[in-house]
Amino acid sequence: MKILISLIALAAALAPDAVSAQTPKPTVVDTLVVTATRSGKAQTTVQIGGSVTLLSPEVLERRQLRDVSDILRDVPGVAVSRIPGQVQVRLRGTEGNHTLVLIDGIEVSDPFAGEFDFGSLIADDAARVEVLRGQQSALYGSDAIGGVIHYITGTGREAQGASARIEGGSFGAFNAAGRIAGVVGDLDAALTASLVTTEGSPGARGGTRNLGRQSGAISLKSTWSPAPNLRLTAVGRLARTAGDNNNSESRTASPTFGFIIDSPGVRFEQRSLNGSLRGELDLLDGRWTHALSAQVADYQRDGFNLRGRSSGNEGRRSKAAYETSFRLGQETARQHLTFAADAERETFRNTDPSGFASRGRRNAGNLGLVGEYGLDLNDNAAFGASVRHDVNDRFADATTWRVQGSYRLANDLRLRAAAGSGVKNPGFYELYGFVDGRFIGNLDLKPERSEGWEAGVERAFADGAILVGATYFDSRLKDEIFTSFPPPRFIASPANRATLSKQRGVETFVRAQLTPAWRIDASYTYLRARENGVEEARRPDHIASAALNWRAPGDRGGVNLVVRYTGRQTDLAFINRNFVPSRVTLNDYTLVNLNGDLKINDSLALFGRVENLLSADYEDVFSFVSPGRTAYAGLRARF
Q1: CA gap 631, 170 in Å, rounded
Q2: How many CB atoms are located within 10 Å of the residue 436 CB?
Q3: Global pTM value
Q4: pLDDT confidence of 577, banded at 50, 70, 90?
Q5: What is the pLDDT of residue 436?
Q6: Any idea which of 29-38, 100-109, 413-422, 483-492 has the lowest mean pLDDT?
Q7: Who's near 578: CB < 8 A, 6+ residues apart?
Q8: Average pLDDT value for the chain
Q9: Cα of 38 vs its chain's centroid, Å
Q10: Distance, CA of 52 to CA of 138 (rounded, Å)
């Protein structure tokens, strides 16, 4: 934490002198995002009243990201919990399944679990990430209580050419990636492949069993433009992750009862296949747009032990959408009206080989209707409102809403605010249970509902080279789904709480291009997440991050230092013999990563990094230990 404070203080001290000596081109204000509207048109961040963060391809590359979940730690309001087989991301104190995750516009949460495993998402070359915080169900429906995370791969037109990367490092790690992209006439395409492997390190306190992992993905994104006003886009992505994991000690007579222990032969495999087709037609000189799309997300997950396959499930989500938007007005006053319709069906089948859990196929359907209005005035003021009505064949119909506004004063001070509501439908495993009968489903569950608001202020300095901001947020969640333990105590079942879950806090950030060579990005979040006055699990009160980047003249290389702090947090542990969960404390920790790269010529570059430089000993989840210091080195080629 002291290192983080020192970096922020350094930026504050250097900024006036550095900028006055050589003011760079503004690069930290007015970035474009596409996720904050259903109109199909990109918006600048100053047009959005809510909180949004863009992680550019340059940021992902310079921090040498392999797992996207790592860089999400640098986003205000984001907490990450990592264990083998399930990496959860929480936005503003909400649950992991309260975040809608999109990959190139495809909804990718597992229909069985109702959430996305970020451990399966590897960073691709030329990709970017958009993070919207706050209730977004008025645009996207169920799951978007905490916000939306959209991972967007680069098109063939945006980043042409070929690239490849290979590296090795600690714990027998071998990573590789390749990309080839280009434009031929009316067609552009990008083919990307990536692989991350490691022999792993021990995952249990005092354990000796190394937990290995293999994650690979291949994706194709292509757009055909047969006419200036017509575009057809196809996306396909296949991903597979296999790895070792450990179980908790179940013998009540053992002194380590409830702790994670070495579990030889225990492992998992998961596969996902996502695809979409989208057609876009512009009429009236681009003022009236239409988009018709279809997508599918197919998932399969299996668990194994020494006796063979021990659990499994498979799920599919099929979705079709129509969007139309009409724009009118001049440069001084622009308006857009948008209508969208989403038809979705999810199916699930439990493939548990023991036969205990029901193996019948389950399904649920939903129709969502969206209306959205936007107004921009002189590039200084913006207002937006949206409403959505969902007709569900299993749960009661839901209506959600969102309003937002932004106003920029003459002195580069921007005021903004947003409010909205959200809904999250129960997942299949919560409704029907799973595996060996220790978790019994509850068909009487109700959807979770949320309402919240936020207000923020941002100030730009030095013609946009420096941007600082702060946001206060406040949310209420009702009918929260939690795990109860009715008699007999070793049987668990979900239920809706009768009390409110409350989240409020403050997010702050600094983005500063101090000189053409030096840049700093820093954020700090204070969070108070309480359920009926009791601190909620895995929601640290304090989260902070700072990244200091230096680039050599001519961009011949550079060095990047990232410091990430996660404060003390509470977790639940089943270490009592009566099977009642105990509240335990996870200590705070600081992770320091240092990386650099050096260009050999215009095509080749050497790079290397050290992660967890100070070898911090930490746990994101009770009794799951994390690796110590690791080092990697590799070679990158671009043509």
Answers
A1: 6
A2: 12
A3: 0.94
A4: confident
A5: 56
A6: 483-492
A7: 489
A8: 91
A9: 19
A10: 16
**Is residue 348 within 8 Å of 339, Cβ to Cβ?**
no
- For 19, the 3-state DSSP assignment is helix
Report the DSSP pairing between strands 534-535 and 518-531: antiparallel
Residues ≥6 apart with Cβ < 8 Å to 255:
none
Distance CA 93, CA 502 (A): 9
Distance CA 94, CA 377 (A): 34
Residue 11 pLDDT greater than 60, yes or no: no
Give the integer Cα–Cα distance in Å for 154 and 412. 31
Give the tokens for residue 439. 């978790």
pLDDT tens per residue, range 517-549 = 999 999 999 999 999 899 999 999 999 999 999
- Give me Rg for the CA atoms of the chain: 24
Q: Are 546 and 525 contacting, i.e. CB atoms less than 8 angstroms apart?
A: no
| Residue 464: φ, ψ to 5° | 90, 5
Residue 81 token pair:
């919990």
Residues with Cβ within 8 Å of residue 560, at least 6 apart in sequence: 62, 63, 64, 547, 548, 549, 550, 593, 594, 595, 596
* Amino acid identity, position 263: S
Q: Which of 462, 465, 426, 369 is nearest to 139 (CA)?
A: 369
Range 322-340 average pLDDT: 93
Task: Give the tens place of pLDDT for each residue, 243-264.
Answer: 999 999 988 889 999 999 999 9
Let me know: does 51 contact 454? Beta carbons within 8 Å.
Answer: yes
Helices and strands in the chain, H and E counts: 5, 42
Cβ atoms of 35 and 51 closer than 8 Å: no
Contact call for residues 471 and 404 (beta carbons, < 8 A): no
Cβ neighbour number for residue 532 with a 10 Å cutoff: 12
φ/ψ region of 114 (left if φ > 0, alpha if ψ in -120 to 50, else beta) reads left
Beta strands in 333-397 (DSSP E): 333-350, 361-377, 381-392
Exposed, middle or buried, 227 (CB in 10 Å: 0-12/13-18/19+)? Answer: exposed
Query: 277 with 294: CB under 8 angstroms?
Result: yes
With CA atoms as reference, report the closest residue to 120 among 191, 200, 66: 66
User: Can you read off the two tokens belonging to residue 400?
Assistant: 């959600």
Give the chain's largest Cα–Cα span: 75
Q: Which residue has tokens 């992991």? A: 96
**Strand, coil or helix: what is 70?**
helix
d(Cα 251, Cα 507) in Å, to the nearest integer? 44
| Cα dihedral sign, 271-163-149-291 | negative
Q: Which of 545, 577, 572, 576 is nearest to 560 (CA)?
A: 545
Q: Terminal CA-to-CA distance of the chain, rounded, Å?
A: 41
pLDDT bucket at 27, cuts 50 / 70 / 90: low
| Residue 445 and residue 496 in contact, taking contact as beta carbons nearer than 8 Å | yes
* CB-CB contact of 556 with 598 (8 Å): yes
Rounded to whole angstroms, how far apart are CA atoms 206 and 336?
60
d(CA 319, CA 300): 18
Indicate the SS3 state at residue 35: coil
Share of the chain above pLDDT 90, in %: 80
d(CA 355, CA 274): 29
CA angle 508, 89, 359 (to 5 degrees): 160
Q: What does each C-alpha distance from 55 to 70, 78, 282, 377, 548 come to in angstroms?
A: 12, 13, 29, 27, 15
Please give the C-alpha separations between residue 281 and each of 51, 206, 325, 342, 368, in angstroms, as whole numbers: 30, 60, 11, 18, 22
